[in-house]
Amino acid sequence: MWLRNVFLKTLRDYRIPILGWGIGMGLVVVSPMASVAALVTTPEARQQLAAIAASFAWNADAVAVTTIGGYATFKIGIFIFLIIVWPILAGSRMLRGEEERGSLDMLLSVPRPRLRVALEKLAAMWTALLAMGVLIGLIAFAGGRQFGADFGLGDALVFGLDLALISAVFGGVALLISQFTEERGPAAGATAGLLLIFIVLDMVHRIAPNTEWISRLSPIYYYNLSKGLIPSYGVNAGAMVLLAVLAIGLGGIAVWLFNWRDVGGTVLLPRWLRLPEHQASRVLPVADWSLRSVYARSLRTIAMPTFWWTLGIAGFAGWMVYAVQLLETKLSTLLSGNAAFTQLIKNIGGGDASLNAGFLSAMFVFLPLFLMAFAVTQVNGWSADEQDGRLELVLATPQPRLSVLLGRFAALATATIAISVITLLVCAASAAASGLQLNGGNLAAAILGMIPLGLLVAGLGYLAAGWLRTAADTGLLSFLLAFWFFVSFIGPELNLPNATLRLSPFYYYGSPLLNGLQLTSILGVIAVAAVALALGAVRFVRKDIGV
Amino acid sequence: MTAMIEVQGLSKSYGSKVGITDVSFQVEEGDVFGFLGPNGAGKTTTIRLLMALLHADAGSARIAGLDCWEKSVEIKRFIGYMPGEPALDPNLTGGQILEYFAHLRGGVDQAYLKQLIQRFELDTSRKFRQYSTGNKRKVVLIQAFMHRPRLLILDEPTSGLDPLNQQEFDRMVFEARSEGRTVFLSSHVLSEVEKTCNTVGIIREGRLVRIGDVAEVKAIKRYEIQITFANPIPAETFKTVEGVTAVETLNHGNGVRLTMQGPADAVIKAAAHYSVVSLTTYEPSLEDIFLRYYEGDGSAAREANNVA
Fold first, then answer.
1. Does one domain contain both A233 and A165?
2. Is the domain of A443 the same as that of A316?
3. N or C: which end of chain B has fewer CB within 10 A?
4. Range of A2's domain?
5. Do A261 and A297 have their domain in common?
């Protein structure tokens, strides 16, 4: 049944992301719901929570934050970008990815109009996004029921629909940009850059007065006009229609351009918009450092993604350090009066929330999560290389299998260390610029301490790649990441047993910004990573390649 | 002569699917060995076992006296390998790919590398993904030859190459042989193996069914001639002609399809007695040849037991 037409086949290809992304993002939405009840035990506590949220209006509108739906909506805030990662990847791969692989030539050789093929693929992506939206809505509804929320199933589904629509818009942007690029990577990168710009544009009107006109340039603004999980706020049907029209328009233009251009070619930009043409040299690149070893080659391959992830992680950390100092007075007043919020911050950050460092510690929990997500994306490349046969010729050279694997791992470890060191430097500079007093040793421990967590994910990924294909390997690691985050983020609120909390590496990361690193814990993480890598190496050295 | 490749009782299966079963053969140093078989016969499995990309279920494979699995790194120092379906980083240029593999091999003679690039007229400035199928194969072919390996293992090397480059490849194989190097190449085209190799092994459905010198190929080689005449001719005209093994009458006697073995001289002379409109000759696929040659009599199994 699933191989009957292009639409069903494409939808079939999306089945793992639909489940993985839908459930994972659903859990992300539900995570904050668990803590609301404890935060609003008294009228004073409610007021203080609202005031704290208002202080973080740059993150999201502080609407009805004392309700479960309102608090969850607020907490998702700028983390909307996490949800939009998949549509960006899917949009950039949909046509350009298949062109790169050469599989589109075959598909377009069947007696079916090119326009129809592209439309069926686009419709499959929209259907997948809708299915993810429904899953997220259902999980949000189930979470809401569990914690006594006031929104119903319809509200939760509308929330999911809003997410699906904003995702479809950025999927459409990626698809459109991919008509102008030779590879899917730059299209995805450019769309991710645009997403960040749009998030900032949307943020502007919440920080500076009379700037709503700027925010209206951002699709995120229209997404935020509907808040399905807050029944008292309701839904802006006009904004949702606008998002739908945008998604259809962008997708439509992209498909029209695809129908018109050469397969494998690009739509030519006007001359003034084109980058200067790079004249490739016929001289052999004998002195190119990146061709000297598997390690150097791997390092060069991940240089660009490392750059973007560094920008994101270091930028986020630097901004948090800067923002905390700006909010110092307000925070210390507010946090000291709200025992529950203080406790929550303590649970997440692991220390005394009356300090700036306490709040910062809670925010820094996201840093190892991001670094681990980076590791997932890079491990994905390893299993894809084997699956696509790109390891075959490398392994036909006199390079031991072990050194090929370790070369790749070392490159990933180098990138992980580079991201962490740069993040540390940015945070130190940010603290110096804002005058924030932080314990330098603890700051270094908090940021450099996330390196073992990144390596743990890498080690587990290399181990799983010994048996699993790319999609399953990535799915497993993504699931583990979501599970660990869920356990660590709401585990203490749900009074999960200590044995369960210990399953998450975040437990061993602790709260280094406040307490420094627990050497034995972090050595334990390193040991598990080393064992995983060793087992992965043993498997790789013995396994059949490409089978 | 000493054996460069020794394979003994090699078997490999993929779950319930059999790759190869009990394959044994030997390739002498300096030989050009053609490994012949239809698609899916087990050629690539055998080659990937020699390259230690797969681990054998049973049997042994040795190259230059070294175990292919245990001593794979040492062996790969003197092997040039070309996979059947080359996959490389699509964003590297041809030049970058060649330099990368040169480094992984511990360096190569740059002058010789440039010479190979010139011989194949390869534009090394283009990215791998921008190459045509033929140019992609040229890149991989050059990387297989660039370090002057003692042993070349080439999986369907001429597939996708144009006739001129096929000729260049033939010359390179000839040169390799004249320098005393060994070539192990797989193919599913009889005439190619016949032209290039001096020893041949034939594999079918995972079993080695025949092995010997290239003359052995001629024993099973069949080709077809289709002749169209201006007027109907008697069918029995070609039945007793030397080299004809089967005759099929076409177009109510206006044409014949002859299955041939050996020279066509007698057929041409017989046809010349009539007014010929057209004459076409073609080589059937290896599988067709096998189907006819081994049809129903179980001789494949018998011969497999008598391989050299």
1. yes
2. yes
3. N
4. 1-29+77-266
5. no
Residue B133 pLDDT greater than 80, yes or no: yes
B 137-156 residues with CB < 8 A to A:
140, 143
A199-257 confidence digits (pLDDT tens): 888 988 887 788 899 999 999 999 999 999 999 998 999 999 999 999 999 999 999 99
Other Cβ atoms less than 10 A from the Cβ of B149: the count is: 20
Residue A106 within a domain: yes
Nearest-angstrom CA–CA distance, A183 and A365: 34
Chain B, nearest residue to A297 by Cα:
B100
Kindly state whether residues A240 and A319 are assigned to the same domain.
no
Contact B104 A397 (CB under 8 A): yes
A329 touches chain B (CB under 8 A): no
Position A208 in a domain = yes
Using a CB-CB cut-off of 8 Å, the residues of chain B touching A542 are: 55
Cβ separation of B96 and A288 shorter than 8 Å? yes
| Facing A100 at nearest CB: one of B77, B79, B129 | B129
Spatial strand order of the sheet with B244-250 comes to B244-250, B255-260, B223-229, B276-282
In the numeric block, the tokens 């818009």 are attached to A169
Conformational region of residue B64, where left means phi above 0, alpha means psi within -120 to 50, and beta covers everything else: left
Question: What are chain B's domains?
Answer: 3-219 (3.40.50.300), 223-283 (3.30.70.100)
Q: Do A282 and B95 touch (CB under 8 A)?
A: yes
3-state secondary structure A510-529: CCHHHHCCCHHHHHHHHHHH
How do residues A415-469 score in pLDDT, each as one tens digit? Answer: 999 999 999 999 999 989 888 888 889 899 999 999 999 999 999 999 999 998 8
> DSSP assignment, residue B129?
G
Q: Are residues A94 and A200 in the same domain?
A: yes
Q: Distance between CA A110 and CA A121 in Å, rounded?
A: 15
Is A139 within the bounds of a domain? yes
Kindly state the helix (H) or strand (E) to which residue A202 belongs, with its residue range: helix A184-207
Q: Is residue A62 part of a domain?
A: no
Q: pTM, whole model, 2 decimals?
A: 0.80
- Shared-domain flag, residues A246 and A301: no
The mean pLDDT values, 10 residues at a time, for chain A of 547 residues are 88 89 86 79 80 76 90 83 86 90 85 93 97 96 91 96 97 96 86 87 84 93 95 94 97 96 87 70 86 96 90 87 71 62 57 59 82 88 87 95 96 97 95 85 92 96 90 82 80 78 92 86 96 96 91
Does B112 reach chain A within 8 Å, measured CB to CB? no
